[in-house]
Amino acid sequence: MKRRVRLQGAARTEMAATLVKGYATASTRELAVRHGLSLGLTQKLLREGGAEIRPRGATRVPGRPWPPPVPHRKPAPMTEGRLDLILDVSERYEKGATIRDLVASHGIAVGTVQRLLRAGGVQVRPRNSPQSLTACY
Question: 21-51, pLDDT tens digit by residue?
Fold first, then answer.
């Protein structure tokens, strides 16, 4: 469990000055971790020390490169079976099948069907479009 830090008087002023000096080359979060402080206390001490808090994610620290982008999802390998699935799902969807029909017939999730349709270059119909409503009745 993290011990609560209580800074008062000269120690508080000294810590604020140290944080302001370090804020030129580090983020608020990095300073908090480095000094064992909470993020809120670090920001409060920076303000007390006269620093202007940078907006979150709006600017980068001068002299530092941007971090490399992290992909949200690793793309599935394009195997022959996956290509066949993309073609089948795309063809049936363009002939009027709904996403729910494709989910039921292939036993895969809605998001997977949507990704397959995107991979096949198919324009997805809006929900409750006349074509999708007629498929229900």
Answer: 988 888 888 888 888 888 889 999 999 999 8
104: nearest Cα among 95, 115, 92, 94: 92
Q: Are 114 and 124 spatial neighbours (Cβ–Cβ below 8 Å)?
A: yes
Residue that is written with structure tokens 């008087």 in the block: 9
Token readout for 23 is 């804020």
84-105 burial, b if ≥16 CB within 10 A, otherwise e?
ebbeebbeebeeebbbebbbee
> Which residue, among 11, 10, 9, 31, has the nearest Cα to 21 in the 3D structure?
31
H-type helices in 1-109, by residue range? Answer: 9-22, 28-35, 39-48, 80-94, 99-106
What does residue 81 show for φ and ψ, rounded to 5 degrees? Answer: -65, -40
Report pTM. Answer: 0.43
Nearest-angstrom CA–CA distance, 43 and 22: 13
Residue type, 45: L
User: Measured between alpha carbons, how far is 24 from 35 in angstroms, rounded to an integer?
Assistant: 15
